[in-house]
Amino acid sequence: MKKILISVLSIMVTGVVAANPMFMDGHENSVTMTIGAGTGSGSLLKLVYPGEWEFVPMTMIMGTYSQPMTIFKIPARMNLNIIQNIAYHSKHGLSFFGLGLSWDVVAFDWHGWYVGGGLGPYYRNNYDRWVSSRLVFGEKFFIGKNITDDLRLEFFTLHFSNGDFTETNLGFNFTGLSVNYSF
Asked: Is residue 177 part of a domain?
């Protein structure tokens, strides 16, 4: 354990930064198109436990502009997100449009595959029976694969809630695919 701690601290102190697998060499910008299906309301557990998913008639579409960065010398990206959720057959209006900022970090990178997570605040144009606030926080888990130097695909799960700032906070959960182009 002592050797692992010393290795991690030495990497942080010496400034060794791994290449960012979400951008590849020389790319400073990326655009992403994301589509996802609703996996029901509920807790953050739905991010990592598909056994809890209950697909509901919702489609989430998100466009993202990103730039590379590091967080404690870990490859990361900062994102500007525009999101539209479309809920079908809902009597109480679960559809929303929103804008958000988020930061994603890569926890693991191996031969073109990477795994990471993200977090950020979003502002929605309305509130509903699942989350009774306009401000929500998005938490994301993703697995990505570099297809070419410019193109990558990511499978993701995403959770929106307001952190129990209001009494009604059932949350929104989604899973889907993202196509990312770096330039």
From this structure: yes
Query: DSSP letters of 9-64?
Result: HHHHHHT-----TTT-TT---EEEEEEEEE--S--GGGGT-GGG---EEEEEEEEE
| CATH number of the CATH domain containing 141 | 2.40.160.20
Confidence band, pLDDT 50/70/90 cuts, at residue 15: very low
Query: Which residues make Cβ contacts (< 8 Å) with residue 25, sequence separation at least 6?
Result: 19, 149
Q: Pseudo-torsion of CA 66, 72, 74, 77, nearest 10°?
A: -10
DSSP result, 91-119: SS---EEEEEEEEEEEEEEETTEEEEEEE
State the total domains in the chain: 1
Q: How far is CA 128 from CA 93, 120, 121, 132, 178, in A?
A: 6, 20, 18, 5, 26
144-165: pLDDT as tens digits: 999 999 999 999 999 999 988 8
- Domain membership of residue 176 as a residue range: 19-182
Contact present, 22 and 104 (Cβ < 8 Å): yes
Whole-structure pTM value: 0.87
Is residue 3 included in any domain, yes or no? no
